[in-house]
Queue: 2 jobs
Job 1
Amino acid sequence: AQSVTQLGSHVSVSEGALVLLRCNYSSSVPPYLFWYVQYPNQGLQLLLKYTTGATLVKGINGFEAEFKKSETSFHLTKPSAHMSDAAEYFCAVSDWGTGGGNKLTFGTGTQLKVEL
Amino acid sequence: NAGVTQTPKFQVLKTGQSMTLQCAQDMNHEYMSWYRQDPGMGLRLIHYSVGAGITDQGEVPNGYNVSRSTTEDFPLRLLSAAPSQTSVYFCASRTELGNTIYFGEGSWLTVV
């Protein structure tokens, strides 16, 4: 069974400040991990993903995330927030890393607000 | 390259009506799936398919039917719409061995 916990349904930061969105997962198989961003009334856009290899993953728009197996975490960070980063962010874990699974399990989302 | 195409984008239904949400992909992906998104609940898997002629239930399948007669198409049918099915629906696809899932733009459904 898989699950994803996103701590904080709403996060507010000042423009230029560090963005930290937390994601913890549980998985019975080696996970593939994803972060998606969703702007109002739009679809999901992939920010970054971890499959295998380097545990620090860089994505689009200056975001990065680090896979920490010992902490079962995949937190999303950005050094300096921009107004355009205001959106909802979803962490997700898949079970298809072993080739047999089909499930992509999402967290409940974190709404990021960026203030002047 | 169109990717994953969903239609309609917006729909209002009356309780008890039936309708089909269409999903098509032009990437020759084996795996296709339907998710629904509700506030505070993230996305939840409704049904999925690993190839033409093969479908299976996800986390929240009740009230929905699917079929996969071709590799390209994976329609989602609401048999008798209920207000609880008001949601945003996303279709997705990926290759069997792929590690990236591609989402459609979403279909906003309101049942009154």
Job 2
Amino acid sequence: DAGITQSPRYKITETGRQVTLMCHQTWSHSYMFWYRQDLGHGLRLIYYSAAADITDKGEVPDGYVVSRSKTENFPLTLESATRSQTSVYFCASSAKVRTSGANVLTFGAGSRLTVL
Amino acid sequence: SQQGEEDPQALSIQEGENATMNCSYKTSINNLQWYRQNSGRGLVHLILIRSNEREKHSGRLRVTLDTSKKSSSLLITASRAADTASYFCATVTGGGNKLTFGTGTQLKVEL
């Protein structure tokens, strides 16, 4: 199916465990992003990637690791999960709008992570 | 830090009424975008307005941008129950491709 898919949709883990959230897009978009959404904070950018093998930190990167070996995949890893990382995580990819040249984001459905 | 701040945080109206949400931002922008998020879903892009534009329309949506006041408004006319969702503004600064989101306005449209 065309689109952007995230897995798992729901995950419960324990403090200290490693967790990987997967993101896959079928449009060959150059840009991909990871945001976390928390009450009172809106969406905050964790990491983003401009192309395969190019990644950069966002606003809240601490405790997270990303990789982008293929254009279509952008996994997010929590190396040692903490309770403060309990959140809803959204992956997005970016296509430029032809008329304006600006980037518009298409989001996945989200991954709800609970760290006990 | 949040670039955009939406106002009000929550809005409840009757079906058929107009809904207006405001967004203020802090630094100069390249463009400003509005997104909708239905409960439990990802965000969906609604409309984009560039820094040299003052008003854009798309169906029942009207967006205005006042760069001198660093603010934007989203007007939804003739609201429907299906418009119930959270609405976020997002700004792009400089030549970058990163969007910075506000905290959102929760809109409830009652029958």
